[in-house]
Amino acid sequence: MNKYFKLLAIVSVLLAMVILNGCDSGSLEDVSKEGGAAVLKDDTVNAEDASLETEVSDVNENVVAEPTEPGKVEDSANSAKDSGEVDKAQPTPDKPVAMVITEGFLGSKDAPITLVEYSDYECPYCGKFATETLPLIKKNYVNTGKVKYVFKDLPLPFHKHAALAAEAARCAGKQGKFYEMHDEVFASVAKWAKADEPNDEFVELALKLSLNGDDFGKCLDDHETKAIVDASAREAQELGINGTPSFVVNGYFVSGALPYETWQQIFDKLIEESK
């Protein structure tokens, strides 16, 4: 059996054991059950503000909803179902979609696993992953050279300040602290999400990280990083992804806020297969 199909079977079995939680284009409380597959080709990647070039496949149209017009996500209420069953599509490398990402990454560029996340700062399931699961992944897999983690933006339209929050994190990235701001934005969502205009809250977070407040404020007010956020969202839609959090791990699409124990099994199996 082809090595990739073996990995696909492993991931499918593991994911079938859990309930996948996520935000989708229908409702904040919906549980996303989109599935699909993508093939990553990792080229040269540098540190902060580097470029990650990957090659991903179209997702199976029977599993993932058709992508909408770039830059827009349709609001189709009650389209997702609360289920532990996960459908997996096979990779289709004959239909690649090129992606160029201008963010940096966490971990070693030579890590055997590349974990790419599409996320929304106001999605509670994304927040759960960011504050509970990701720290453990960083400690045990990213910091040990086993996993390279890349964050991409997919702000959903029913989250009022998600796009601006994404821009704020990218503005911090211009000063070399994207992932630090990422953590602060997720940790303080209860405060800035309730504000009418959260710019001041984001500036406070920037100052907390010892960033230049004037430069950060100008970047945010002028929407200097909006193009980066919009490009990331378009990439997600080209893949048929319209729910968060969504992941592409070594070419395989995974949806929902999986518990750390499940990620641990997935990573360990992929590492073993890569030897």
Quickly give the CATH architecture: 3-Layer(aba) Sandwich
CATH fold label: Glutaredoxin
Q: How far apart lie the N and C ends?
A: 17 Å
Order of helices and strands: HEEEEHEHHHHHHEEEH
The chain-level structural class is alpha+beta
Shape: globular
Number of strands: 8
Strand neighbour order, sheet with most strands: 5-4-7-8
Uncertain regions spanning at least 5 consecutive residues: 8-20, 26-101
Give the total of domains.
1
How many H/I helices?
A: 9
Overall mean pLDDT score?
72
Biggest pleated sheet? 4 strands, mixed
Residue share in helices?
A: 25-40%
Query: What portion of the residues fall into strands of 2 or more residues?
Result: 5-15%
Q: Regarding CATH, which class?
A: Alpha Beta
**CATH homology superfamily name:** Glutaredoxin
Q: How large is the radius of gyration?
A: 18 Å
Structure description:
There is one protein chain. The radius of gyration is 18 Å and the shape is globular. It has one domain (3-274): 3-Layer(aba) Sandwich (Glutaredoxin), CATH 3.40.30. It contains 9 helices and 8 strands. It has a 4-stranded mixed sheet with strand order 5-4-7-8. A two-stranded antiparallel ribbon has the order 1-6. It has a two-stranded antiparallel sheet with strand order 2-3. It starts with a helix and ends with a helix. Helix 2 (124-142) links the parallel strand 4 and strand 5. The chain has helices at 3-15, 124-142, 162-173, 178-187, 189-192, 199-208, 213-221, 226-238, 260-274, and strands at residues 23-24, 52-57, 96-101, 113-119, 147-153, 243-244, 246-249, 252-255. The protein is α+β, with helices and mostly antiparallel strands.
